[in-house]
């Protein structure tokens, strides 16, 4: 923790380095930089929240689609899932004939 003596030394060094007329401008620009940083951080937080919500909705949709694909449709037949390699409806692998 900084004591009174250390703060006075830092203030004196700042006056010597920047001059009395430059210190208010320096403090003002530091305040503006902090404000811009906080605004940018808030925007990044909102963008991250939107991305998380979008990913959550996409995963829920995929889970719902997977559940629908494995359930039995209204006719009593299982839902036909296309073959992932050929895109043809239903399974395309055929068992070899028995000898």
TrEMBL record:
<feature type="region of interest" description="Disordered">
    <location>
        <begin position="53"/>
        <end position="99"/>
    </location>
</feature>
<keyword id="KW-0472">Membrane</keyword>
<protein>
    <recommendedName>
        <fullName>Sec-independent protein translocase protein TatA</fullName>
    </recommendedName>
</protein>
<keyword id="KW-0653">Protein transport</keyword>
<keyword id="KW-0812">Transmembrane</keyword>
<keyword id="KW-1133">Transmembrane helix</keyword>
<dbReference type="InterPro" id="IPR003369">
    <property type="entry name" value="TatA/B/E"/>
</dbReference>
<feature type="compositionally biased region" description="Basic and acidic residues">
    <location>
        <begin position="53"/>
        <end position="65"/>
    </location>
</feature>
<keyword id="KW-0811">Translocation</keyword>
<keyword id="KW-0813">Transport</keyword>
<dbReference type="GO" id="GO:0015031">
    <property type="term" value="P:protein transport"/>
</dbReference>
<dbReference type="GO" id="GO:0016020">
    <property type="term" value="C:membrane"/>
</dbReference>
<dbReference type="Pfam" id="PF02416">
    <property type="entry name" value="TatA_B_E"/>
</dbReference>
């Amino acid at each position: 923790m900084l004591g009174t003596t250390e703060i006075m030394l830092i203030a004196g060094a700042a006056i010597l380095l920047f001059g009395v007329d430059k210190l208010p401008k320096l403090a003002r620009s530091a305040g503006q930089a902090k404000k811009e940083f906080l605004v940018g951080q808030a925007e990044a937080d909102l963008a991250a929240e939107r991305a998380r919500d979008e990913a959550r909705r996409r995963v829920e949709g995929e889970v719902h689609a997977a559940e629908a694909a494995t359930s039995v449709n209204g006719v009593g037949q299982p839902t036909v899932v296309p073959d992932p390699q050929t895109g043809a409806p239903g399974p395309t692998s055929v068992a070899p004939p028995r000898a």
